[in-house]
Amino acid sequence: MRLAYAALTLALAASPTSAQRFDAISPVTGQPDNPGTGLDTAPNGLPSLRRRLPDGLSRDDGRGSPSGDTTGGDQIGGDSLRSPLSPALPTQGQVQPGQSQLDTRATGGGQRTGGSSTAPANLAPSALLRSRAAPPRRLGTATRRYTQDITQVPSPALKLTPIIQQPVVGVPLPQAPTQLRPILPLIPGSAALGLLTPGFILGTDLARPIPMDPAYAPLGYQVGSFTVLPSFAQSLGYDSNPDQTSRQLAKGSVALRTDAAVDFQSNWSSSSLQGSLRGAYLETPQNEPASRPAADGVVRLRIDADRDLHIDAEGRFLVDTQRTSNPNLQAANLGLQAAATTSRPLLAVYGASLGATETFNRLSVTLRGSIDRSEFDNARLSDGTIINQADRNLNQYSLQLRTAYEVNPDFSPFVDILADTRVYDLRQDQNGIRRDSDGIALMVGASFGLLRTLTGEISAGIQHRTYVDPTLRAIDAPLVNAALVWSMSPLTTVRLTAATGVTETTIVGSSGILTDVATLEIQHDLLRNLSIVIGGSLLRNDYQGSTIRENGVSATARLDYHLTRWLTLRGTYIYQQINSTVTGASFQDNTFLVGLRVNP
Question: Strand pairing partners for 489?
Answer without folding.
Answer: 492
